[in-house]
Amino acid sequence: MPESRILRPKSQEAFRRAKRLIPGGVNSPARAFSAVDGDPPFIARGDGPRIFDIDDLQYIDCSCARGSLIFGHRHPRIVAAIEEALKAGSSFAAPTLRETELAELIVEAIPSIEMVRLVDSGAEAITSAIRLARGFTGRDMIVKFAGGYHGDVDALMVATGSNPILAGMPGCPGVSFGATNGTLILRYNDVAALESVFAQHGDLIAGVIVEPIATNMGLVSGTAAFLETLRRLTQEHESLLIFDEVTTGFRLAYGGAQQLVGIEPDITVLGKIIGGGTSAGAFGGRRNLMHRLMPAGPIQQGANGAGNAITMAAGIATLRELRDHPPYEAMEHAGQRLEDGLRDLLTADGIPHQLVRLGSMWILFFTEQLIDNYDAAKGCDAPRFSRFFWAMMDRGIYWPSQQMETAFLSAMHDEVVIDNILKAAGDALKFMAGFAR
Ligand code: PLP
């Protein structure tokens, strides 16, 4: 297998040291680079669109903390807001004004959310949203779609996207049959399957969880027919439609993917960007629904770190910046420039590929086949991807280490940065031409 041509001795030593104490040396599996058969660089710091490893190598960051950093690393207003908050203390596990302020920003941005609960991560928000759907409807069954990854949530640990497949555990050991027993799996964008499952089980379904634009099995937009059918069937059967906008929320538009697709869910789950670079999650929806949560209602939900001052300050600064200086148009131009450039390079070299881009998110598969579902995404040319990945890393581009994983630009990735990515990609493809295709 082709590995990096560049030595990273400090990172290699750091990885050995970490592996002695932390399983696999990492605190989340995809960080270990097992999919590309190599060792990860250890990151020392970030600055705008760039990160620097402990061997002092720099990279243009095309992951942006998996889409969390819409303003890149260390945006001055976000840093200032965190510093200001710290002066008064980091966490109180008691009500604070900042929590209401972040809630106000979210509710103003996303009309389907009348009330919101702030939590510590995307997975925690998803877990709570599912409990809310079950508690509200008095039903157990949850529908999800193959390839949909919704965080480390037992009930949804079946046919997930990027992480668990690579760890080789679609049926993950440790997840009980009881936990996934009530989870039905359908194919994404399959309208007929939806109609059929609702015809058979509609009155048992508590909710359907879906990314309106799927980001963990490639980048696949829900078709209008699929999303409209979902909305209609859930309404007809009094099930709840849950949009997982952990990745898409505030990424493509200030109102989330739901603003673009024109469909309002019953519950929206947020994460990533709302934490402004710290770990965060939130879920929200109609007032009568959210009122079922404790202490207003009977459904338990709570966490010690929820609403901590650092996350609130970072989140508020990020959403204000997005509201007052929306970067979406500029990011679309940057994305288009990147897409055009990459497509030209790949086509000129006759390399079979599927390149999908939406705004500041994109994904590149080495295949001729259209990738519109999980099975198709699984069948792509992994060795070629691995070669490309390391050729890019060695040219200073930090590309997501799994082919199925979406790549991200931040608002700090300007034209010069995009041209640097394209120059590296051109060199990487030339270098790869030396290998058998
Ligand atoms: N939902 C989606 C679509 C995600 O991509 C992720 C994480 O990548 C999550 C939920 C879980 O978020 P977290 O890692 O903050 O728990």
Which strands sit side by side, in order, in the main sheet? 4-12-11-10-7-5-6
Largest sheet: 7 strands, mixed
The gyration radius over C-alpha positions equals 21 Å
The total count of strands amounts to 16
Overall, the morphology is globular
Structural class: alpha/beta
The helix count comes to 16
Bound molecules: pyridoxal-5'-phosphate
Q: Which spans of ≥5 residues are poorly predicted at pLDDT below 50?
A: 162-170
Question: In percent, how helical is the residue content?
Answer: 25-40%
Q: How would you state the average pLDDT, rounded?
A: 94
Short description:
This protein is an alpha/beta fold. The protein has helices spanning 9-21, 64-67, 76-88, 97-109, 122-137, 162-166, 177-181, 191-201, 224-236, 257-261, 287-290, 309-324, 328-348, 374-378, 382-393, 415-432, and strands at 43-47, 50-53, 58-61, 115-119, 141-145, 183-186, 205-210, 213-214, 220-221, 240-244, 267-271, 281-285, 354-358, 361-365, 397-398, 407-408. The longest helix is centred in the last third of the chain and has 21 residues, at 328-348.
